[in-house]
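Before relying on records like the one below, remember that each one covers exactly one chain. Contacts with other chains, cofactors or solvent are not represented anywhere in the record.
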Amino acid sequence: MSTDPIRWDRRDDGIVVITFDDPTQQVNTISARFQDAFHAVVDRLVAERDEITGVVLASAKKTWVVGADLVEFRESMERGESLGEALDGFKADLRRLETLGRPVVAAINGTALGGGFEIALACHHRIAVDDPSVRIGLPEVKLGLLPAGGGVTRLVRLLGLQAALTEHLLIGAEHRVAAAKEKGLVDEVVPDAEALMPAAIAWIGAHPDAVARWDAPGYKMPGGTPSNPKLAMILPSFGANLLKQTNGAPAPGPRAILSAAVEGAQVDLETASAIETRYMESLLRGATARNMLQAFFFDLQYCKGGGGRPVRADGTPYPERRPTKVAVIGAGMMGAGIAYVTARAGIDVVLKDVDHAAAEKGLAHCRSIEEKKVARGRTTQEKADALLARIHPTGDVADLAGCDLVVEAVFESPELKDKVFRELEPVVAPDALLGSNTSTLPITGLATSVQRPEAFIGLHFFSPVEKMPLLEIIRGEKTDDQTLARALDYAAAIRMTPIIVNDSRGFYTSRVFGRYITEALTMLSEGIAPAVVEQAGRRAGYPAPPLQLMDELNLKTVQRIMHESARAEEPGMATPPEALRLIDAMVDELQRPGRQAGAGFYEYVDGKRAGLWPGLREHVPAGPTPGVLEPAPDLQELADRFLFLQAIETQRCVDEGVIQSDAEANIGAIFGIGFPAWTGGPRQFLANHPDGPDAVRQRTVELEERHGARFHLVTAARS
């Protein structure tokens, strides 16, 4: 059996079909073996050009080509190897294919991302199957990289600078086939895989002299080059918008893409390609790309792949067990969201609240989600109706009979949760998995409410559930391995990314998240202007600044969690009393509990933020005296306080055994609580800081000396 990742077949009509099919991998990736084979194929195409009438690039796998072999890629980075030579060699082969003098068609039967789509861009015509599972695009920016296989160079020439940057390169969009066709990424769509080859052959027959549009006589770049007066007028806005989006946070990937695109648009294709390579090499020398690659590929793959799934004593895996009927208790926003994602996975749900009317409100929330999707063309009315029919609202506990999984999502009261579980346990299936969606209450304590504590587990979803991809699974002291395995099977069924943590007040994500908001309150108490506190959060790279985030969460919830945590904390890490006093004042004295009430740290008009509340400065220590020049707060110092405090709390969770893998710590923090993506997560931030490990230790010592024991870092060792 051949191990060659590429097959060659020449038809009687002279069309050569090149089939990507690596027998050593489940998907086709651009590995060193692939590149060697591709080089040989292009050599042969050039040598036999006179006997060839056209070329079709196809795949024998369900996907087309999904991009670079990132395992090899990381190993090369760790060895300190320059990838420039390999990149330039691969791009030279793509250029030889593109200028072969024969029509070349990409017959895309499955997902084509990154380097895979860059191969397609070097073809003269791209045909894709209309399959909802197929994704097409250049997502490299999400890994802190740029599309260096000609992606920047060709996409700019295909679509023009503005569209290429704003709709694709800078956001790393992965498009469904219909959208890819609409945006010009593919030229033709066929209904199924069987129609691909006939369509490709027909196009070759109709276009025997095809060339890339940028190689055609009279080609002009869409929208013009940067020397075009109209484009030159708006070109500065690209950089300004990028600066606005990043708020000064590290973003070397987007900046490199912008530079490579603008510079490359002013020169010929070969020079633009060299510019692209140069910027890629600069990214690979920095820490950000390494960190993001680790988090968003390797760490994410570990979590999604069930890396923490337990096995039986004999080493064999527990049989996969997907739930068939799920009880969701509590039909508020959280419970309704859990019911929705469960029904979306094709599982029947009983949504229970105190009465049928309350449960119906939860169903109405699910209905509103589907109505928006139908209106936007993201689903059909038939599919929406089928999903909603799987959700059964009720106020009667008897309707929970036969449920093999329970997700309790009622108010965060131990007494209420105790009552709920004592009522439902005798009704549900005898071996039902018993889960609580609590975000802070220890699972071991809640498990005392049930007869089978070994079957009790924490299932902590994040709001809004239908948009947040993370599920924090909390193991209590008596939770057994089989229960954990079943919880992971549920996460897989509803397509959530799981992390596994051991029991602790606040578990992992809530503990680490709490450091962000309490530090913001501490800064306010020090007299730092609210706008500066918010800007520091943006500067660090958080998706939302802390005061805005607290308003969204509801300050009453923040207050309750802070007081519970304060009672449980060790003296060295205790919540600063100034922060507690400020949150108490906002809730109890000033009656400003957040956005839902129309008043919080921000003002609201018709439910929309209308700026920070001016009266806030009257209730915190005064800042600089008007008319007196004083040094402005150091934004980087404030940003570091947020980043390091959360990373230190993560280290404490590792030291205490709350979380046991760096992958889950990184993914949990990024996906669950918005830790800045550029860091690769709090573990990567400490282990691979841009300034090195010595700088980490020095910085924490400085922060501890200036701001207190909460910045004390015991160890920065990796788990």
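Confidence is low (pLDDT under 50) at residues 624-630.
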